[in-house]
Design a protein that fits this description.
alpha+beta; eight-stranded antiparallel beta sheet; two-stranded antiparallel ribbon; 6 helices; 62% helix; 15% strand
C-alpha cells in the first residue's frame, strides 16, 4: 500500500510538471519567433529612418511593428497566466505531497518503534521458538527477513520522494523568477508599443497633409495592382489549360513534384531573406483610407534595395513578363507540378523561360531606387487556378 501511494505521488507530480512545462515552452518559443520577426521589422525601419523621408512603406512597417508588438504582449500575458496557474497548482501539489510524505514517515517511525520494542521483549525469538517443525521455522525466518527488507525499501522510497519534492520546490522557485522577468518584459513591450503608436500617428499626419492628391494616387495604385493581378490570373489559367497536352511521363513527374511541394507547406524559405510581410493575403483595407480596399492574391514582402529574390522550391520557369507600365517591373511565373509561385516587382532577372530552377536559387533582385516604397516583392502561390495564402507556406 505504501509503495503504491509513493509511486502515485511521483507520477502525479512529474506528469503534471511535464504537461505544464510543455505549454510554457511552446509560449516561450512563440515569443522568441515573434521577437525575431520584430527585429527584422525594426532593421528595415532603421533603413527608412536613415533616408530621412517619410514613405508609405515606413507607415506599413510601423503598422506591422505595432501588430507584432501586440502579439508578443498577448503571448506574454498568456505566459504570465500559465506561470501563475503553474505555480499555484505546484504549490498545492507540493502541499499534498508533503502531507502524504509526513504521514508515511510517521507510519514508518511507528514500524521502527514497534520493531524496537519487540526486540527488547524477545518477540522475534519467541516467534521462532513457537515453530511447530523445521519447515515452519524456515517459513517464519523468511517472513522476518521479508519484513526487514520491506522496511528498508520503504525507507529508500521515502528518501526518493523527498528528493522529488525538493527538485519540484526548486523548479517552482525558478518559475517564480521567470514570472517576475516576464512581467518586466511585458512592461517594456508596452512602453515600446506606446512609442510605436505615437510614431504611427505622426507619420499618418505627415503623409496626409496633401490628402486629395494622396488619395488619388492610392486609387490609381489600386487600379494598377488589380490589372497586374488579372494578368497573372489569365496567365495561370492559360498554363493550366496546357495540362491536357501533357504526356504520361510529364503527368507522372507533375504528380511527384506536386506531392513534394505540398509536403513542404510551412517549411519553404522566404523569397527575400530578412524580408517582412507588409501587405497580407486576401481582402485588405488601405493603410490610410478605410474605404479603399484591394483583394490581394498574394503578399508583399519588404526588403532592402537590391536584395536577391530566391525561388522557394524546385520547378520550371514558365513565363516572364513585364509589368513596368503598372509600376511592378518584371514578374516571373514558376511551375511546381500543380502549383505555381509568382515573383513580381523583380529586376535583374537571371533566368529565362524553360529553365529548371531549384530551391534557394537567385532569380533576380529587388529594385534599386531612391524611393523606399519600391523595395518590395509581391509574392503569390497558386494551386491550379486557386490562389493560396503564401504565409502558410513559408517558414519563419
Amino acid at each position: 500500500m505504501i509503495r503504491k501511494i509513493l509511486i502515485l505521488l511521483t507520477i502525479v507530480i512529474l506528469g503534471w510538471n511535464t504537461a505544464a512545462g510543455q505549454d510554457i515552452d511552446a509560449l516561450r518559443k512563440g515569443i522568441e519567433r515573434d521577437r525575431k520577426e520584430l527585429q527584422r521589422l525594426e532593421n528595415l525601419l532603421k533603413t527608412n529612418v536613415a533616408s530621412k523621408k517619410s514613405s508609405e512603406r515606413e507607415l506599413k512597417l510601423i503598422r506591422q511593428t505595432i501588430s507584432g508588438r501586440r502579439k508578443i504582449i498577448k503571448n506574454l500575458d498568456s505566459q504570465i497566466n500559465a506561470l501563475v496557474v503553474s505555480i499555484e497548482r505546484k504549490q498545492k501539489q507540493l502541499g499534498d505531497g508533503e502531507k502524504r510524505l509526513a504521514k508515511l514517515r510517521e507510519e514508518y517511525a511507528g514500524y521502527i518503534y514497534e520493531g524496537y520494542k519487540s526486540s527488547l521483549r524477545g518477540d522475534a525469538l519467541s516467534f521462532m521458538l513457537a515453530s511447530e517443525d523445521f519447515n515452519d521455522a524456515n517459513r517464519r525466518l523468511a517472513y522476518m527477513r521479508h519484513a526487514t527488507a520491506a522496511r528498508r525499501q520503504t525507507a529508500a522510497e521515502i528518501d526518493s520522494i523527498s528528493g522529488v519534492l525538493t527538485a519540484q520546490i526548486e523548479e517552482m522557485n525558478l518559475r517564480k523568477q521567470e514570472l517576475a522577468k516576464t512581467r518586466d518584459s511585458r512592461q517594456n513591450e508596452l512602453k515600446k508599443l506606446n512609442t510605436n503608436e505615437a510614431d504611427y500617428k505622426k507619420k499618418v499626419n505627415q503623409l496626409t497633409k496633401n490628402e486629395k492628391n494622396l488619395k488619388a494616387q492610392a486609387s490609381s495604385a489600386r487600379r494598377k495592382i488589380e490589372q497586374a493581378q488579372r494578368k497573372i490570373n489569365d496567365l495561370i489559367v492559360a498554363e493550366n489549360k496546357k495540362k491536357t497536352k501533357r504526356t504520361q511521363a510529364q503527368i507522372d513527374a507533375d504528380v511527384v513534384l506536386s506531392g513534394q511541394f505540398g509536403q513542404n507547406k510551412g517549411k519553404m524559405p522566404y523569397p527575400v531573406r530578412g524580408g517582412v510581410v507588409i501587405d497580407r493575403f486576401g481582402q485588405q483595407r488601405h493603410h490610410l483610407y478605410n474605404n479603399l480596399t484591394i483583394n490581394n492574391n498574394g503578399i508583399n514582402i519588404a526588403g532592402k534595395a537590391g536584395d536577391p529574390v530566391k525561388c522557394v522550391f524546385d520547378g520550371e520557369v514558365r513565363t516572364i513578363f513585364s509589368l513596368t507600365s503598372l509600376g511592378q517591373n518584371t514578374a516571373i511565373l514558376v511551375k511546381h507540378g500543380d502549383y505555381f509561385s509568382v515573383y513580381q516587382n523583380v529586376v535583374n532577372v537571371s533566368v529565362k523561360v524553360g529553365d529548371k530552377v531549384s530551391i534557394n536559387q537567385t532569380i533576380g533582385t529587388l529594385p534599386v531606387t531612391n524611393n523606399e516604397d519600391d523595395h518590395f516583392l509581391h509574392f503569390e502561390i497558386w494551386q491550379n487556378n486557386q490562389p493560396l495564402n503564401p504565409e502558410y507556406w513559408l517558414n519563419r
